Amino acid sequence: MQAVAVLVLTCVIVAVALPGVMKLLPDLPQDLKKAVSESQVPFEELTVLEEDVTGGYYYQNLNEEERRIYKEILQGVQKREETIYVHTGDFDLLTKIYYFLVLDRPELFWCTGGLQATYYPTYSELSAEYNCTEEERLAKQQQIDLEAEMALTLLLAQASAERFDQIPEYERIKFVFEYLVNTVDYVEGAPDNQNMYSALVGKQTVCAGYARSAQYLLQKMGIECIYVTGTCSDGEAHAWNLVKCDGNWYQMDVTFGDPEYMRTEEGEALESSEIDYAYLCCNDEQMLKERVMDDLVVFPACTSLDYNYYVMRGRYYAGYNAERVLEDMNQDIYNGERKFLCQFASEELCVQAFADMEANVFQEAAQTFMTVYGLQNVEYYYLQDPAMNTVKVYWNY
Fold it and tell me: Taking the model in full, what pTM does it have?
């Protein structure tokens, strides 16, 4: 699984900018020396407004000087400048700010994250790496706009709403999660798979494309969404999101919501329409059980389970009561459900519950299924996910 592109920077170190001028003015104050040395640098007038960038989570973690540099780089890449002049000669700072910019802004799909930089004591000259020509960018932008508009219009139609703020935040988040899982396939090596174009237009991507697209669509709906990177337990790079819902932050991984990762205990692949909701609005304890977030900034803590999918459905169990689980399972069967999904509060509890459900509860519920649907026998499949403490059973699958 691939994540955001790693920055590759080539730097030419120049010991002193405009050495002739600096040599002629050895006794001037340092601030004046700096002003003189930069006097011939063609800095562009900064036109990026604070309101244009303040929503970026990584931007919020920069100080005033760093935010100015962020805006200078953003202005340059938006115009696809061949050379961008910024007010820092600090290599490490420059790489951090450019990386934060890429993480914040999924709409910069034409930026690969690669960068060449020539830096001087007080400023740098950047050349960002673009993955397409300007003509291609414009054509791709039109396609992205069309696909995004179709998705957003679909949500408004389903909710019978005229504005997104009329739709509960959870429903907006859940829609994007489901929409991407249902319309995009996980394909390693898919073109443009490190940006949202691959998912929204190409309909094939990897984790970066899923997470970029979720970030882009949710931000358009007025939902705060952070693109995060890290590694899974196997050491593989990965990308996913944090989303803010009604004042609390939650973890969300669209990639792992894809049925590509769902198989029964017997190894049977589940149908392509299946979604793993365990990765929708979960907390840190659940999501970070088998992954580590990159230590870039202090991320908001995700501690709430209020909008956990299983909590919302009344299928989250803090303890195991076989009669309660069977009652819930039977109720879902009466309601016409062909599957039963539940989550337990801990791995130990999940293992304990699953053992009893496999030995007793599934068979008892199968009797209910046969009675309700007038069947002589019923086939069912089930699986347990120890990573997210979930148990799932599918009737007559």
Answer: 0.87
